[in-house]
């Protein structure tokens, strides 16, 4: 099969097209003929060597296509069925065929209306994360004010819409440049601020009360700053380090005295330890997408062999929404 693999750790130029053996499903797994694969920041981290995986390594944590084969014990999926899948456990999505746990593979032909396969490939990582971050990690309550950093990115676009769909009182966002403000506002946000002076703006927008939830996929100094705009009993949700900043350390006594909390969210950890929560979230989110209550924003579709260009665009922070690789011929 055709694939794009990490040949050595480093920059986007270390992604190379190659031929790999077709994978075969093991117990509880399926293989998928991939039509599209989403491109995500986590795949950039693997390419840089954040995790010392054996090389060559095929990245790719979400795909859409059709079931090629089913392994022993799989009874709810059939050959030829259109599906989306979170392939985050073993990765491998930048290829014509990928293995996926059946528990993380989501049928598309059971929905009220068809979902485009490109959109289906771009929804699992961001939309499932957005739903679980708000409903489970942050313990969202209708009427809550929510602040999201990197509001114009793929995850930010999902978080704004899901917060709105769940009944947020205010949905506020930050972006790194003025040209991204309008895009974010079109994806669920009431107001969007430039990151360098967002704290005063957020406090003013909430009448001095602050927000109940801050979602931070950026990292660095934003971790500490975000606590300043949280209301009492508010939650800061930490789920990434897109800014590649140094880790920060928060005093637990400080959290106690301020009655504020910090909660982590890692999609891979949830997939490994609570796949049933992933499946339930996928089912709900896919129904919203099928009913046009959520929009999967795709900023570009590139051929598989241009995966390196997709990585460059993400690193240069010039993208809004999601980039998708077209793999099926």
From TrEMBL:
Origin superkingdom: Bacteria
Stored Pfam families: ADH_N (PF08240), ADH_zinc_N_2 (PF13602)
Extract the SMART domains matched here.
PKS_ER
- SUPFAM superfamilies given for it? GroES-like, NAD(P)-binding Rossmann-fold domains
- InterPro entries attached to this UniProt entry: ADH-like_N, ER, GroES-like_sf, NAD(P)-bd_dom_sf, Quin_OxRdtase/zeta-crystal_CS, Zn-ADH-like_protein
Q: Which residues form the Enoyl reductase (ER) domain?
A: 10-325
Q: Which PANTHER family match?
A: QUINONE OXIDOREDUCTASE-LIKE PROTEIN 2, SHORT-CHAIN DEHYDROGENASE/REDUCTASE
Name recorded for this polypeptide? Zinc-binding dehydrogenase
